[in-house]
C-alpha cells in the first residue's frame, strides 16, 4: 500500500466528461489498495473568465477581492469530483483551503503556503476516505481567502503530499511527461523516464511549461517524489527525483527554450564603479526581473556596452525606467529588441564533464546562428539568439548532444 | 442617519454593467449619510448552471457537495461588487457565510439560519465600511458550507438586517414593487405604497413571486421593515410593514394567483373516522404538501368525495402514494387534474368586513366561471378554478373589489 496525491490540471477537469474520467483515474489508484488524496485546478478557461470579470470592475485592484472571486473555480471542481467519486462507490469529500486549513501568508494573489494541518485528512485517509482538495487556494492570516498565483495548484499538491507524507505526488496534465525538448518543434524528442529536481527546475523556469517552478522547488526541499503524466493516456510519465536515484546519468538531459525574453543594450555607458547598481537598483524597484547580463568593453575607451535581458512583458517598463535615469548614468544610446529567444542545454552530468558549452557553440556556429548573450550555471548553458532561429537551433542542439530518438 | 441593508437579486447583478449600476445605488445611499450593508445573489442564470453541473455528476446526490458548488455564485458577485464600490471611492469588503459566520443548521440545500454574529460588521459599518455579504449561504455545524434553498438571499438579507438592527431592508429586484395583481395580466393593476406582513405573506406564497416566503415570515417575526423596489428605476417601491403603520387600510389589497397547483379527487371514499389520517399521513411521509381540502357527501350514502390540491410537481408522487393505499382506504375512483389555478383575494381589512367572499363568488359566477374548491383564512379567500379562466378571473376580481387604477 502506498499513499499517493494525485493532482489534475485545468484541461483534465475541463468538462463534465473529463471530471468523470478523473474519477476513474482516482478509482484505479484506490482499487490498487492505495490511500489517495486529490488536488484539483479549476476547469480550463474558468480562471481566465473570473480574472477577466475582476479586470472589468474598475481601475482599483484589491487582491483580497480578486482572491475571493478566482478561488471559486477550484471550489466548483472539488465539489463535482467528490460527487463523481461517490457515484463510483468511493467515500470522498471536498476540502477548501480554509477548511483544512492551508495556512498561507497574506500576499494575496501570490501567497506562499506556510503550513498545512493535515491531521484530519490523514485520519480520514486511513479510514478509506478520499479528500478532494481545492488547489491554488489557502487561508491568510486575517481569515480571508488567498490564492497562490497562476499555476499554483502544482504547489498545493506538492505541499499537501509533503504534509501527508505521501510516497508520490502524481501531476496529471495534458502531456505525458517531460521531454528532452519540445516535441512540437523537435520531432525526435524523447520522453524522459526520470529527471532530477535540479534539471526539472531549469527546464520549468526555462520555458518547458510542464510543472510550476515553485512546485519543483518545494518538492526538492522536502525530497517529495513527483511524477508528471497524462490524464488522457494510461501509461507511466516522468519521475522527478533526487540525483541519487538516477544511476546512469546522461550528460545533457534536455534542450529548453523561452520566448519570454527581451534584450536591452545600453551603448557606451560610462565605465566607473557603481554604474551597474545605478541601473539595476531602479529596475528592481520597478519590479523588473533582470536575467542574463553581459558587459563588453566599448570601442571608444572609458565606456562600456551593457546588455541584459528582461521578461518580454516588462520591456516597456524597463525602457521607461532607464530613460528616466539617463542624466544619472549617462549612455549614448538605448537599444531594445523583443525578438530574441533563450535556448538552454540542461543536465546535471555537465558538472563532471568538460566541453559541454563548446559543443553548443560549435553546433550553433555550424548553422550560422549568432550568439548574442551567454550565461551559464552549474547544470546549464543558456544563449540568447534571434527568435527566427528557434526551431533550427533546438533541432541542431538536440542532435549534437545525441538526444535524438532512434 | 439610518442603517440600511440593500439586497440585490440575480437580474440586478446579471452582468458587469449591472453590478456597476448596483454600486451606484449603494453609493447613493452612502452619500445620504446612511450606514449600508449589501446582500447579493448570484448572477442570473449562474445558480442554474451550477445546479445543472451537479446534476450531471451521477445518480448519487450529496447535498453537502451541492452546497460547495452552488455557493460559488454568490462568492463571485460579492467580490466583484466590493471592487466596483472601491472604484467609486467607497470602503467596502466582501463577506462569505463562513467568515461572518452566518450559522445555520445542517440541512444542506435548504438550511435555516440559526444565528448571525454581526458584531464585527457592526463595528466596521460604524467606521464607514460597507460589508458586501454573500446571500443564500451559511456555515453548518460541521464547518461546511450550507445553502438556504432557492431564493434564500431574501432571507439572508432580512436576517442580516435584523441582526444589525437595520432601520430598513431594501429588496431590489426586477419589478418596482408589490402590485394589486400581476400587471402582466391585469393592466389596471396598481403599485401598493404599503402592505402588511400578513398580506405580503399570502401574496408571496400564493404566487406573486416578489419576495421569498421565509424572508417575509422572518421580517414579521422581528418586525423588520422591508421595502421591495426596482434596481433599474430610481423611485420608491412598496413598504412591507406592521398593520399599525397603515392608517387607511383597504378591505382587499390584492388578487394573487398560483399555477403551481394540481387537484386530486377520490370518489366515494368510505365515510368513517380515520380515513383522512390514512390518506394524508402517507402523503406527508412522501413529502407531499397538501394545500386545499374539501369533503362532500357523495351521492350514494356511507361514502364521501374527497378533493384536495398538491403542488403540481408533486402530483405524480401523490397519485402513486395514494394508489398504493387503495386496499386500505378504499375508493371508487381517483381523478387528477393539473390544469387548475388558485386565485386568492387578500386583505387584512376583511377581518372587519363581511361579504368579501360573497363578492368574489358573485363576480366569478357573472363570468360563468365554476369554482371547484374554496378555502379561506382570516385575511384571504382562495378558490380553485379551471386554469383557462386565469386572466378572466383576475381582471374581473380586480374590478369587483375596486382596485383598478383610475
Give a written overview of the molecule.
Two copies of one chain form a homodimer. In chain A, a hairpin with a 2-residue loop joins strand 19 and strand 20. Helix content of chain A is 34%, strand content 26%. With 406 residues, chain A is of the alpha/beta class. Chain A is globular, with a radius of gyration of 23 Å. Chain A has helices spanning 16-31, 46-55, 63-70, 72-87, 119-126, 152-164, 197-205, 213-222, 275-285, 315-324, 326-329, 356-366, 390-400, and strands at residues 3-8, 35-40, 92-95, 102-104, 113-116, 130-134, 137-139, 145-147, 168-173, 194-196, 226-230, 238-241, 254-258, 262-270, 290-297, 303-310, 333-337, 340-346, 373-377, 380-386. Chain A has a domain at 3-174: 3-Layer(aba) Sandwich (Carbamate kinase), CATH 3.40.1160. The mean pLDDT of chain A is 92. The interface between A and B is large, with 40 and 40 residues.
What is shown here, in short?
Two copies of one chain form a homodimer. With about 400 residues, chain A is α/β, with parallel strands linked by helices.
Could you name the CATH class of the domain at 3-174 in chain A? Answer: Alpha Beta
Query: How are strands sequenced across the largest beta sheet of chain A?
Result: 3-6-2-1-9-11-12-10
Q: What's the rounded overall pLDDT mean of chain A?
A: 92
- The count of helical stretches of chain A stands at 13
Assigned CATH superfamily of the domain at 3-174 in chain A: Acetylglutamate kinase-like
> β content of chain A, as a range?
25-35%
What name does CATH use for the topology of the domain at 3-174 in chain A? Carbamate kinase
Quaternary state of the chains: homodimer
Total count of strands of chain A: 20
Shape of chain A: globular
- Could you describe the largest sheet of chain A, including whether it forms a barrel? 8 strands, mixed
SSE-based structural type of chain A:
alpha/beta
From the coordinates shown, what is the CATH architecture of the domain at 3-174 in chain A?
3-Layer(aba) Sandwich
How big is the Rg of chain A?
Answer: 23 Å
Question: Greatest contact pair?
Answer: A-B, 40 and 40 residues
Amino acid at each position: 500500500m502506498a499513499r499517493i496525491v494525485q493532482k489534475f490540471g485545468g484541461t483534465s477537469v475541463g468538462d463534465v466528461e473529463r471530471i468523470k474520467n478523473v474519477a476513474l483515474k482516482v478509482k484505479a489508484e484506490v482499487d490498487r489498495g492505495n490511500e489517495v488524496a486529490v488536488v484539483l485546478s479549476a476547469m480550463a478557461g474558468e480562471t481566465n473568465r473570473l480574472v477577466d470579470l475582476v479586470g472589468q470592475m474598475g481601475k482599483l485592484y484589491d487582491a483580497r477581492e480578486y482572491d475571493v472571486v478566482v478561488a471559486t473555480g477550484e471550489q466548483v471542481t472539488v465539489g463535482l469530483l467528490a460527487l463523481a467519486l461517490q457515484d463510483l462507490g468511493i467515500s470522498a469529500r471536498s476540502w477548501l483551503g480554509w477548511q483544512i486549513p492551508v495556512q498561507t501568508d497574506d500576499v494575496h494573489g501570490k501567497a506562499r503556503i506556510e503550513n498545512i494541518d493535515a491531521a484530519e485528512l490523514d485520519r480520514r485517509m486511513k479510514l478509506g476516505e478520499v479528500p478532494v482538495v481545492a488547489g491554488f487556494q489557502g487561508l491568510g492570516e486575517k481569515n480571508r481567502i488567498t490564492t497562490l498565483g497562476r499555476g499554483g495548484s502544482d504547489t498545493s499538491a506538492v505541499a499537501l503530499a509533503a504534509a501527508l507524507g505521501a510516497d508520490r505526488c502524481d501531476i496529471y496534465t495534458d502531456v505525458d511527461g517531460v521531454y528532452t525538448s519540445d516535441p512540437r518543434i523537435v520531432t525526435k524528442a524523447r520522453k524522459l523516464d526520470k529527471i532530477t529536481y535540479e534539471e526539472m527546475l531549469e527546464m520549468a523556469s526555462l520555458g518547458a511549461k510542464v510543472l510550476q517552478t515553485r512546485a519543483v522547488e518545494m518538492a526538492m526541499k522536502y525530497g517529495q517524489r513527483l511524477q508528471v503524466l497524462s490524464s488522457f493516456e494510461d501509461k507511466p510519465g516522468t519521475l522527478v527525483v533526487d540525483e541519487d536515484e538516477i544511476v546512469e546519468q546522461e550528460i545533457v538531459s534536455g534542450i529548453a527554450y523561452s520566448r519570454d525574453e527581451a534584450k536591452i543594450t545600453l551603448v557606451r555607458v560610462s565605465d566607473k564603479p557603481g554604474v551597474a547598481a545605478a541601473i539595476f537598483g531602479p529596475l528592481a524597484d520597478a519590479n523588473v526581473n533582470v536575467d542574463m547580463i553581459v558587459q563588453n568593453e566599448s570601442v571608444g575607451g572609458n565606456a562600456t556596452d551593457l546588455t541584459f535581458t528582461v521578461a518580454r512583458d516588462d520591456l516597456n517598463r524597463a525602457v521607461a525606467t532607464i530613460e528616466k535615469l539617463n542624466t544619472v548614468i549617462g549612455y549614448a544610446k538605448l537599444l531594445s529588441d523583443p525578438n530574441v529567444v533563450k535556448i538552454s542545454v540542461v543536465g546535471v552530468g555537465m558538472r563532471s564533464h568538460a566541453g559541454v558549452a563548446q559543443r553548443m557553440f560549435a553546433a550553433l556556429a555550424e548553422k550560422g546562428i549568432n550568439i548574442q548573450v551567454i550565461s551559464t550555471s552549474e547544470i546549464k548553458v543558456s544563449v540568447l539568439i534571434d527568435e527566427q532561429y528557434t526551431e533550427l537551433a533546438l533541432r541542431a542542439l538536440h542532435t549534437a548532444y545525441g538526444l535524438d530518438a532512434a
